[in-house]
Amino acid sequence: MSDHHKDDGSRVETFDARSPSRRRFLKSMGASGLAAATAPAWAQIAQASQSQAEPVEPRDDGAPGEGEQQIQLIVNGVEHTLNVKPNAVLLDVLRDRLELTGTKKGCDQGQCGACTLLVNDTAINSCLSLAVSHDGDEITTIEELSQGDELHPVQAAFWAHDAYQCGYCTSGQIMSAVAILNDDNIGSDDASVREAMSGNICRCGAYKNILAAVQDARGKMKGAS
Amino acid sequence: MREFDYARADSARQAVSSHGTNEQAAYLAGGTTLLDLVKIDIMRPEQVVDINRLDLNEIETLNDGRTRIGALVTNTALARDERITRDYAVLSEALLSGASTQLRNKATTAGNVMQRVRCPYFRDGVSPCNKREPGSGCAAIGGYNRSVHAVLGTSDKCIATHPSDMCVAMAAIGATVQVQGPEGEREIDFLDFHLLPGDTPWKEHALKENELITHVTLDAPIQGSRSGYLKLRDRESYQFALASSAVIVALEGNTIREARIALGGVGTKPWRVKEAEQALKGQPANEQSFQKAADIVMRDATPYEHNAFKIPLGKQAVIRNLTTQTA
To answer: Among all residues of chain B, which has the CA nearest to that of A85?
Structure first.
């Protein structure tokens, strides 16, 4: 629906905000009634109020200023045209420019995993990514996971298993969990999950419950697909 | 983060030409080392040449049996490639033992080869460090030198370990690094690529001026061999090695026909030990011959105040890995 053609003189790139890979990804998110069934009543109320948040409008910065680079970022299915300085970090652009503050800044040097999000369905640390390097990429943040009032199975499982205390690392934990549950190369046993999630540090030490939540969500995502 | 100019390259030639002879230019691939070090102001590029759009994402089997890996193949993609898991298990295991899932998803083959040391005195920006500030001294010698400091290949100027696991496996396998420079392409033997600190610890590799790594080509696998990577560390995951070993071994009955041994976590570069390999050749695969090889590995080791334990630990990493691969 929003094809973008860019001609920089040497080659033509085509971006499709609803490319097959994106559709596949959303399908694997597995919208189901399970979230509502597991989340307590107060959680559902919190969800309902959260879902009234303003949808993110496409952003267009117009002509770039001096020293700026113009890029397209497809964030949660919405294509934005942004002018950024070369040293602008993807995490900061999402949080400060697009006001998508669900992705957290922890250590800001690739050690804690709080900033984990998906680029073209692959989990990466957004704090170690220049925005300009992601021109044309599809970015999925925590804000994209719930379908209206329904939490994603991984979000619901984190809630049900009390898989956090302060919650600051939770967005990154959930994004990593979503990625590994969609990755057939990663084993389903507890040791494999612990290993695959080791880039997400939880200083409250909720690891036991995080593991339980991931394994619980695995069953539900399977059941939903 | 400090400001820099930015150029996106569409070809290796263009990348080299954008980089020019500007000493303050840096190639950007996955960014997991570069952007980290720019953020903490240890690396200060005036220009960043983004090579992520170059067509260097392939893993190819060459006619002579070697395997050519594009510079931009991610650590995850390389570790999972069927040819790598089948013919070079040691490399796949080494890659998967390094960093975290999301870092491996970003980090590239060439970037891993080019990663910088993890010595806290290098990273803190204030301590004496000959690598960061030539002539300022080495705070690690006489400082806290337990976990990321070497016992092999050190000098009185620098004792930081090379942090890579991938490179240890590549050193054991044998490889060549293909680079593109202003005058065309050339090859560097992998074992000659990383330099010992000596009197010039700021010189870390054999690249000239603006040369760009385009590929790493692995030697053909040794027929009938088994291989594996054993990494010993303070915690089970997401931690640099205290000592690690990459071992490739081929048996004829119970006699060792061929062996390759390299170590990580204990040396100032990926540490291949050909003399220990020679000592194993033709010997029975048993504890005595493994112990003898391990003794050769650590014969010239120099312990520092807090890391003497790495000498027995490194030996054990070799013995245990050889035992596993010949069981």
So the answer is: B3
